[in-house]
Amino acid sequence: MARAAPPAGLRPFLPADAPALATIFRESVETLAADDYDEDQRAAWAAAADDEAAFAQKLAGALTIIASLDGEIAGFASLRDGTLLDMLYVHPRAARRGVGSALIDALEKLARGRGAREISVDASDAARDFFAARGYIPHQRNLRELRGEWLGATTMKKTLDEKAQQR
Ligand SMILES: CC(C)(COP(=O)(O)OP(=O)(O)OC[C@H]1O[C@@H](n2cnc3c(N)ncnc32)[C@H](O)[C@@H]1OP(=O)(O)O)[C@@H](O)C(=O)NCCC(=O)NCCS
């Protein structure tokens, strides 16, 4: 299938973006994770955005970037402590159009530029194939409890290529 033009732009997170990102987060979990987590699990996961002030603070406390497609915010990603990919969420409307790839490419470059040699992620089951296709290796299976629901994830790691750093 023909792929649309690459995301129009990547930019840093601004506090005013928080409500739009909370919506993307909820809709991404609700729709794109539906094959891997049941309704109760998705509701527990999506509830992380219920306290929008705390959600905004979490985004502001990390290196968070935003991708736009067709003039609208289409997804976001955040890197915590220089090496941990904390969040990566794409709006269902924009899925499979290269937004997630553009975000992760940019965060990998930023991490490399700041001296990181490795990047890790607790990948959801919905995103595991996406990360595997991008060179992330599974290390450990995890379970985390959210509001009484148990959600599986996989710690995956990628060694950042030193040659790519010079590009
Ligand atoms: C995972 C996610 C970020 C991918 O975003 P995306 O913008 O759709 O990804 P891209 O379009 O850049 O995909 C690039 C490639 O990754 C792979 N890929 C992406 N999503 C995939 C999926 N659900 N299953 C298998 N492979 C996938 C494919 O190889 C794809 O290329 P293709 O479309 O040409 O086949 C998005 O599906 C999402 O937000 N998921 C729900 C939230 C989530 O689980 N986030 C991760 C938390 S750790």
Number of domains: 1
Distinct bound molecules = coenzyme A
* CATH hierarchy class name: Alpha Beta
Distance between the termini: 30 Å
Per DSSP, the total helix count is: 6
CATH architecture: 3-Layer(aba) Sandwich
What is the arithmetic mean of pLDDT?
93
* Molecular shape: globular
Radius of gyration: 15 Å
Tell me about the biggest sheet?
Answer: 7 strands, mixed
Instruction: Give the structural class.
Output: alpha+beta
Describe the secondary structure blueprint for this structure.
Elements: E1 9-12, H1 18-32, H2 39-46, H3 52-60, E2 63-69, E3 72-80, E4 84-90, H4 99-113, E5 118-124, H5 128-133, E6 137-146, E7 149-159, H6 162-165
Parallel strand pairs: 4-5
Antiparallel strand pairs: 1-2, 2-3, 3-4, 5-7, 6-7
The structure holds coenzyme A.
What attributes characterize this protein structure?
single chain, 167 residues, alpha+beta, Aminopeptidase, seven-stranded mixed β-sheet, binds coenzyme A
Question: Could you explain the architecture of this structure?
Answer:
- The structure is a single chain.
- β3 (72-80) and β4 (84-90) form a beta hairpin.
- This protein has six helices and seven strands, in the order βαααβββαβαββα.
- Strands 1-2-3-4-5-7-6 form a seven-stranded mixed β-sheet.
- With 167 residues, it is of the alpha+beta class.
- It is globular, with a radius of gyration of 15 Å.
- It has a single domain, classed as Gcn5-related N-acetyltransferase (GNAT) (Aminopeptidase).
- Residues 28-29, 32-33, 88-90, 95-101, 121, 123-124, 126-127, 129-130, 133 line the site of coenzyme A (COA).
